[in-house]
Amino acid sequence: MNWKEILTKGMHKSDVDLCASAVVQEPKLFKELLDIVAKGEVTPAMKASWILGKAAELNRSLPAKHVSRIIELLRQAKVSGVQRELIKTLFKLNLQEEDESALLDLCFHFLNHTESDVAVRYNALKILMALTKKYPDLKQELVASLEAQLEYNTEAWARYSGKTLAKLKRK
User: Fold this and answer.
1) d(CA 156, CA 154)
2) Closest to 3 measured CA to CA, from 12, 14, 143, 22
3) What does the alpha-carbon distance between residue 93 and residue 56 come to, in Å, rounded to a whole number?
4) CA atoms of 112 and 26, how far apart (whole Å)
5) DSSP 53-106
6) Distance between CA atoms of 15 and 75, rounded to whole angstroms?
7) How far out from the chain centre does Cα 88 lie?
8) What is the DSSP letter of 168?
9) Rounded to whole angstroms, how far apart are CA atoms 63 and 46?
């Protein structure tokens, strides 16, 4: 597949769906897209991560072989769109303890930095909420993080995090 041509022109959701389907059919393309994200060129990296996120949504086993690399790319990513899609790629995966710990740290990092894009924080919070089911002791740390930043956020984020806080306190 000629990624350079595909990722440098305008893309619509239908284009992403088509590319993601191709990745599902030919899993080696997943690694090629990770390589493009790793290069860090903004436009191709954003579009490649969008395709990765959609491909992972279609087939959860695709990112499994690449978890450590995805986490490292997430750690290095400076563009919020890339961060958001890489987090989505890791959602609902069964991770090794070391990878889970690294992802947990990154998600708290994104959540606690109010300058992080709301979509990045939202997806980080989804992962953290899922991890509280596995690690109930995490709830208190998550509650403390959310409470500490309520007054420093947009109204929409404050409303969403407030609802999440209510859920955490009910459990």
Assistant:
1) 5
2) 22
3) 10
4) 37
5) HHHHHH-TTGGGGGHHHHHHHHHH--SHHHHHHHHHHHTT----HHHHHHHHHH
6) 27
7) 3
8) H
9) 17
- Give pTM, 2 decimals: 0.91
Asked if 85 and 56 count as a contact pair (C-beta separation under 8 A), the reply is no
Are the beta carbons of 107 and 126 closer than 8 angstroms?
no
Alpha carbon 25 to chain centroid distance? 22
Q: What angle do CA 63, 67, 70 make, to 5 degrees?
A: 90
Contact 45, 36 (CB under 8 A): yes
The pLDDT tens digits for 14-29 are 999 999 999 999 999 9
Q: Count the neighbouring beta carbons within 10 Å of the beta carbon of residue 150.
A: 12
pLDDT of 92 over the 90 cut: no
Structure tokens at 63: 């990112």
